Predict the 3D structure of the following.
Amino acid sequence: EIVLTQSPATLSLSPGERATLSCRASQSVSSYLAWYQQKPGQAPRLLIYDASNRATGIPARFSGSGSGTDFTLTISSLEPEDFAVYYCQQRSNWHFMYTFGQGTKLEIK
Amino acid sequence: QVQLQESGPGLVKPSQTLSLTCTVSGGSISSGGYYWSWIRQHPGKGLEWIGYIYYSGSTYYNPSLKSRVTISVDTSKNQFSLKLSSVTAADTAVYYCARGSDSSGYSIDPWGQGTLVTVSS
């Protein structure tokens, strides 16, 4: 089973600042990594797929990078609506299982 | 665009079977390349994948739940379902149905709004 470890657990920043969230896989997932945003009481929303492709309707301030085991989600300039919990996710080609990271809470400083 | 909606009892007694249905609208559940999935979230916790049924009918389950989970599809109703047997309070969670895709790196989109299931006598 591939384990995804996100860091930091909590990130405190102010609007306008740059946010950098990390996701590390216990073994290579190639580029098959996605990022989601979840706000309280809502379902997760797909932000990034295939490590670096923005999903439909996602603002350009969100970007993803990485391959293999190390991935990054960057929010270039935080808007008030960006404060939420962010999850990374992968699906193994060997075990056909989906796994999620434990989440990073992005909070207002 | 495709939309998913969960339905089912919000309260289940311990030792009974939790049954949920996901209705797919705006597209066919028989379309190729999709993984019709169930994911849950315990209160205040992260996301846990339960399992999925591929458009071909193959199923894959989280090993930690495999002995209790069945996912099936009803193409005539454009629905897929989750059954989780022998539930305990630890199965209290928000349950989401969602669609995974071959063509977007196995990412999951869209998601249903989620339904809270409480296990209690």
About this structure: Chain B has no helices and eleven strands. The longest strand of chain B covers residues 93-101. Chain B has a mean pLDDT of 96.
